[in-house]
Amino acid sequence: MSARGATKEAILSTSISLFNQYGFEQVTINQICQEINVTKTAFYYHFKSKDELISEVFSIDNIVSNDDLLNILTVTDFADQVMKTMGIYVKHMVRLGVEMTKENYRVHLRNQILPLDKSKSPLLSDIIPTLIQRAKDEGQIRNPASAEDLLESMCNLANGVILKWAVEGGSFDVLEETRKRFEILLVVNRE
């Protein structure tokens, strides 16, 4: 890894630690730079702002691990593959806890974009609609809407459940709740 790559990773990991310890609003760019002994120029080389940094922390690039992929591929039910794949995105969105998830939504709302957006990931935009269509063809999903519309609805539903989870302080199992809501939306056939 290059020094620039190492610096970016150091900025990200240090920022997460400081945000969790002191809260997003209380942590300054100066504090982040002092903690890892880098200049503000180095920080700004990688990130234009703390908001951009938080977006990077929650970026959906490269979130599927080999274990996740194996878990998805070992399931022969296409509807279950769809829900496991969407579950990976939900886990990723909430992995840093309630406060960081709130900040992620705050940043995205200010920038007028949704955190879980199908256009940001080939897995979401290309593969999941194919799995949805296969599940529909096999009679595992009975909702008559198109695969693309169902995916869009799943993304919107996941954003809503995650936001509710954050607002309620993490008071429920967000993965279980999204899976339950996905099954209702898709009209999953469990016979």
UniProtKB/TrEMBL annotation:
| Residue range(s) of DNA binding per entry | 28-47
InterPro entries assigned to the protein according to its UniProt record, in alphabetical order: DNA-bd_HTH_TetR-type_CS, Homeodomain-like_sf, HTH-type_Tx_Regulator, HTH_TetR, Tet_transcr_reg_TetR-rel_C_sf
Which branch of life, at top level? Answer: Bacteria
Q: Which UniProt keywords apply?
A: DNA-binding
Species this protein is from: Cohnella cellulosilytica
Full protein name: TetR/AcrR family transcriptional regulator
Q: Specify the HTH tetR-type domain's residue ranges.
A: 5-65
- Asked whether the UniProt record includes Phosphoprotein among its keywords, one would answer no
- Record's PANTHER family? ACREF/ENVCD OPERON REPRESSOR-RELATED, ACREF_ENVCD OPERON REPRESSOR-RELATED
Q: State if Cell membrane is listed as a keyword.
A: no
Query: What Pfam families does this protein's entry cite?
Result: TetR_N
